[in-house]
Design a protein that fits this description.
The complex is a heterodimer of chains A (about 675) and B (about 120). Chain A is an alpha+beta fold. Chain A has 5 domains: about 120 residues, Four Helix Bundle (Hemerythrin (Met), subunit A); about 90 residues, Alpha-Beta Plaits (2-Layer Sandwich), CATH 3.30.70; about 55 residues, Helix Hairpins, CATH 1.10.287; about 180 residues, 2-Layer Sandwich (Heat Shock Protein 90); about 140 residues, CheA-289, Domain 4 (OB fold (Dihydrolipoamide Acetyltransferase, E2P)). In chain A, about 40% of the residues lie in helices and about 20% in strands. Chain A has 19 helices and 21 strands. Chain B has about 120 residues and is an alpha/beta fold. Chain B has one domain: Rossmann fold, CATH 3.40.50. A 5-stranded parallel sheet of chain B has the order 2-1-3-4-5, with helices on both faces. In chain B, strand 4, helix 4 and strand 5 form a beta-alpha-beta unit. In chain B, helix 1 crosses helix 5 and helix 2 runs parallel beside helix 3. Chain B starts with a strand and ends with a helix. The chains are: A alpha+beta (about 675), B alpha/beta (about 120).
């Protein structure tokens, strides 16, 4: 349980730190905002308090000084300055490092801890306070186990009940310490008409024989010592014998010891309410959800097998059961996938910090605007988007945004804007990074691509195609790698990461006005709607969101195109890839084939298959490490009859076809 | 009938620890993560005891205690403050608002139970 609680603390602390970061950044902009100061203080306070409870003493000790400073800020004794925000952000990072170090990730820079602590202490006027010295009552142990007797006189203040204290409980506590003789003293009890039942008129004389120390007896009265008369005297050995023959027990009290419950209020509904409250939200480890998604995947597979079997038998009852199961499975699938959805906002707030720090480092004045922070995406997708987005934002800040002087000279506002937006669109989410920087020099891309041998001098490429060249491996227009552009990840890596999420990325830019990077990501990774097709004895699936339509391709059509893989679709020529040849499928080609027309990043391309089976809910299974590099397939799925169908990676197939075409000089580029 | 305790803290980990400990000792526990939520819960149902953190969003613990004490239902109910501070001035402030006692963080489950038993009798 200890480990579990530590983990709970860690999780909480990570969340608090991320909130803390955004509060600090907001505070920097609104230094007078007392609510924000309160938020920062409370975050530090909770981290300190909980940290010490769960054994994170280093974190608790470090946070103490930060908390003290923010307590003073709260009392308006210290102003919010840039320096304070910077220092607090560093402190926040340091706490994060301490947490990480606790899980074995990285180490803590002790020098930095000391340096920050000193800097915070320097902010505290006068001497640092001792408020946090944890009060551990000294355990005054008696000498050995010797029993001593004490006479205790306890006269509570009349209003003791109004502080929620029950004197009987205190007397019972004394009884637990040793053998006890208690005599109630009722001398102050007034006449009945003068009696206020809410006041306490009793006092007690207690003789206690115990092997415990005086400290423990004093502890019994710790909450009432200030307002009560309490005398504890050690008796000598003669008096130690039980002397008081008077009332052996507590004098009857004028008040009930139970807390008053309002009559007529039934307890049952109250309990119901309490459990409802506890269930309002629950936290579960992500791994549990993952295995649930896996199970639903299995269920979807078995359900399609049931539907297939039912369709094969002419049994109306079985059919209706199969349909019902299909409906329920669909609902279950949607619900489970929905549980994994998280708003992308948490990632966005991280970037605020990134932009702030980088702007300072680069000497640029940049404001990050975000919109659509509540757009929801699969948790895994959000996590995997983090690095590519960081890279793109860094790129934009480093290369895209001009220095304030340059901006002024160009007649732009000195403050540059980077707009990060998430937009829901069908079964995808579009994430856009817009900057109002210098834009991309398209001629520079062109000449560099020619220089690198990626395109020929004579090639005529659209702007869109030229921008796509930025994603080619090793293509970078930056002359040097600055510390900002960081880990040396190229745009090709960004593109691969996005494609691994079955997404796509596009750049558009106009010179002097800015650049827009647009990323389209499917909502979830686990299950997709797809189109099931057959070639020979094999089955394949294509993601349905890319499919536009299916048309027939007859033998005559093929002959008419004179060896060029082009089909006429509504007046347009659409290139196609004959998958039967591509996959070297055995058997004969049917007389009439089908072309599945897909739209990939705005380009149409056809895939020729033997026949189209229909829509299919595809549970994506990875191919495993051996087939990881297989080109043209992105995964596999299990069909209702238990056979395996490969999931086609249509954009990879298209690229492969383009490369093949390019290597055959007398043929025009495929698309 | 087990006594029901309202535990209030904006730190989830502390709340969890308090709840587990008290439930383990046979109490019923209702949790709230700030003073305002606690006040609403306490108005709707009845508790034998309130355990509250002090620094919380929306409503702090001292205000919560003061407001609850003003409610006839909670006139005599034990209310404990969970706090990281141990100074006398703060204790006096808590007492003035109507707190029964306090528990200084960090505390372990045994200490928590000790104090709860102490005031609940």
């Amino acid at each position: 349980m200890q480990e579990q609680q530590k983990e709970a603390f860690r999780e909480e602390a990570y969340e608090l730190l991320s909130e803390l970061e955004s509060s600090l950044l907001e505070l920097e902009e609104n230094p007078e905002d007392q609510d924000l100061v309160g938020q920062v203080f409370r975050a530090m306070h909770t981290i300190k308090g909980s940290g010490s409870m769960f054994g994170f003493d280093d974190i608790s000790a470090f946070t103490h000084d930060v908390e003290t400073v923010f307590d003073l800020v709260r009392d308006q004794k210290i102003p919010v300055t840039n320096n304070l925000v910077n220092l607090s952000l560093s402190a926040r990072d340091q706490i994060l490092a301490m947490l990480d170090a606790g899980t074995g990730q990285g180490t803590v820079d002790e020098v930095q801890t000391r340096r920050l602590t000193e800097q915070f202490r320097a902010l505290i006027p006068g001497q640092e306070s001792d408020a946090a010295t944890m009060e551990e009552e000294p355990q005054t142990k008696p000498d050995g186990k010797q029993e001593c007797s004490y006479r205790i006189w306890f006269k509570p203040c009349a209003e003791i009940f109004l502080s929620g204290t029950n004197p009987v409980a205190l007397l019972n506590e004394l009884r637990d310490l040793g053998s006890c003789h208690i005599r109630g003293v009722m001398d102050d009890l007034p006449e009945l008409e003068g009696l206020n039942p809410e006041l306490c008129y009793s006092s007690w004389e207690i003789k206690l024989t115990t092997d415990r120390g005086r400290g423990e007896i004093e502890d019994v009265f710790i909450f009432v010592e200030d307002e009560s008369e309490i005398h504890i005297d050690l008796l000598d050995a003669h008096e130690a014998a039980p002397a008081a023959p008077a009332a052996k027990d507590t004098a009857p009290l004028p008040l009930q010891s139970e807390q008053p419950q309002s009559p007529g209020r039934s307890k049952a509904p109250a309990e119901n309410k309490s459990s409802a409250n506890a269930e309002a939200s629950i936290r579960v480890p992500a791994s549990k959800l993952d295995s649930m998604v896996d199970l639903v995947g299995e269920l979807v597979t078995i359900q399609s097998r049931l539907s297939q079997t039912a369709a094969g038998r002419e049994d109306a009852e079985l059919m209706s059961i199969a349909e019902e199961v299909e409906r329920l499975t669909g609902e279950l699938r949607d619900n489970i996938l929905n549980i994994r959805m998280l708003p992308i906002g948490s990632t966005f707030s991280k970037f605020k910090r990134l932009v702030r720090d980088l702007s300072q480092e680069l000497g640029k004045n940049i404001e990050l605007k975000t919109s659509g922070a509540d757009t929801e995406l699969d948790k895994t997708v959000i996590e995997k988007l983090n690095d590519p987005l960081i890279h793109l934002i860094r790129n934009s800040l480093d290369h895209g945004i001009e220095t304030p002087e340059e901006r002024k000279a160009a007649g732009k506002s000195e403050v540059a804007t980077v707009h990060l937006a998430a937009i829901h669109s069908g079964d995808s989410v579009i994430i856009e990074i817009n900057d109002d920087g210098r834009g991309i020099n398209i001629d520079a891309i062109r000449s560099k691509a020619i220089e690198k041998g990626l395109i020929a001098q004579s090639d005529e490429l659209s702007d869109k195609e030229l921008f796509q060249l930025l994603f080619a491996p090793g293509f970078s227009t930056a002359k040097t790698i600055s510390s900002v552009s960081g880990r040396g990840v190229g745009m090709d890596v960004v593109k691969r990461a996005i494609e691994a999420l079955r997404g796509s990325i596009e750049i558009s830019s106009s010179r002097g006005e800015g650049t827009r990077v647009s990323i389209r990501i499917p909502l979830t990774l686990a299950i997709i709607e797809s189109l099931l097709v057959g070639i020979g004895n094999s089955k394949y699936v294509l993601p349905l969101n890319l499919v536009e339509e299916c048309i027939e391709l007859s033998r005559e059509d093929v002959e008419r195109s004179h060896g060029r893989s082009l089909a006429k679709v509504r007046g347009h020529l659409v290139p196609y890839i004959p998958l039967r040849e591509h996959f070297d499928t055995e058997g004969t080609r049917p007389d009439i084939e089908q072309i599945v027309i897909a739209n990939i990043n705005g380009s149409q391309v056809g895939f020729v298959v033997d026949h189209v089976v229909g829509e299919h809910q595809t549970v994506i299974k990875s191919l495993g490490p051996i087939y990881r590099d297989a080109q043209g397939v992105s995964g596999a799925t299990i069909l209702g009859d238990g056979t395996v169908a490969l999931i086609l990676d249509v954009s990879e197939l298209m690229k492969g076809a383009m490369r093949d075409e390019a290597s055959v000089p007398d043929r025009a580029a495929c698309c | 009938m087990a006594k029901t305790i309202l535990a209030v803290d904006d730190s989830r980990s502390i709340l969890q620890m308090v709840a587990l400990t008290l439930k383990g000792a046979g109490y019923q526990v209702v949790e709230a993560s700030d003073g305002q939520a606690a006040l609403e819960l306490a108005t709707r149902q009845s508790f034998s005891m309130i355990l509250t953190d002090l620094n919380m969003p929306r409503m702090d613990g001292i205000t919560l205690i003061r407001q609850l004490r003003a409610n006839p239902k909670y006139r005599f109910t034990p209310m404990l403050m969970l706090t990281t501070e141990a100074g006398d001035a703060f204790k006096a402030k808590g007492k003035a608002a109507g707190a029964t006692g306090w528990l200084v963080k960090p505390f372990d489950p045994a200490k928590l139970l000790g104090v709860v038993k102490k005031v609940l009798g």
